[in-house]
Amino acid sequence: MVFTEKQLSREIKYKGKIVTVCLDEVELINGKKTLREECLHPGGVAILPLLDNGEVICVRQHRYAYNADLIEIPAGKLEAGEDPLECGIRELSEETGYTASEIIPLGCAYPSPGYVNEKLYLYLARGLKEGDSHPDEGELLEMFTMPFEELLRRVMADEIHDAKTVIATLKTKIILDGERK
Questions:
Q1: Which range marks the domain in which residue 27 is found?
Q2: Active-site residue numbers?
Q3: CB distance 98 to 59 below 8 Å
Q4: Strand order of the sheet with strand 33-40?
Q5: Cross-strand partners of 144
Q6: For position 113, which CATH number holds?
Q7: pLDDT digits (tens, 9 = 90+) for 87-114
Q8: Smallest Cα–Cα separation from 151: which of 113, 124, 178?
Q9: In what order do the strands lie in the sheet with 99-109?
Q10: pLDDT at 133
């Protein structure tokens, strides 16, 4: 069975710099009508920079929605029409100053499909070369490194909650384990 929903109407409730919030009336496959709230987001990219010495370049930044400083991998919002890989390369350079000779796609994730249409494209970056970071204006972050195994331990100990970091870390672990065989 295919569970499609037919959009009958859309009312834009809020249009901001990053998100647009809509209230839609939809018709379900059984003919019943209901409401759906949807948050439209341009999508984003996250890139796990793995240094040759086995350390990961991380960033710590304050996240207003949680009123907490979070440990994350470099990431950013896609610009309209921007290729996700190019966005990842840009964000890696902006937030860390590094460039990569190898970028491995880790797939796409839907961070909260119940109400947001955001797609997160994930990458692993290797063969890193150091340069100067140049974060966006208003983007305050601290860059630091930690051993990949420590990042993995912290993910598994529920000390790192950022979804893109968790997913990219676990997928990278599978890749690294496959290379060791």
A1: 6-40
A2: 137
A3: no
A4: 6-15, 20-27, 33-40
A5: 58
A6: 3.90.79.10
A7: 999 999 999 999 999 999 999 999 999 9
A8: 124
A9: 75-77, 44-49, 120-129, 99-109
A10: 80
- In a domain, residue 107? The reply is yes
Split into its structural domains, the chain has a count of: 2
Which token pair is 3?
Answer: 């569970």
Residue 82 lies in a domain: yes
The per-residue pLDDT for range 38-94, each reduced to its tens digit, is 999 999 999 999 999 999 999 999 999 999 999 999 999 999 899 999 999 999 999
Average pLDDT, the chain: 95
Question: What phi, psi does 2 have (nearest 5°)?
Answer: -100, 125
Tokens read off for 60 = 């710590």
Compute how many other C-beta atoms are within 10 angstroms of the C-beta atom of residue 100: 20
For every residue of 72-112, which 3-state class applies, written as one string?
A: ECCEEECCCCCCHHHHHHHHHHHHHCCEEEEEEEEEEECCC
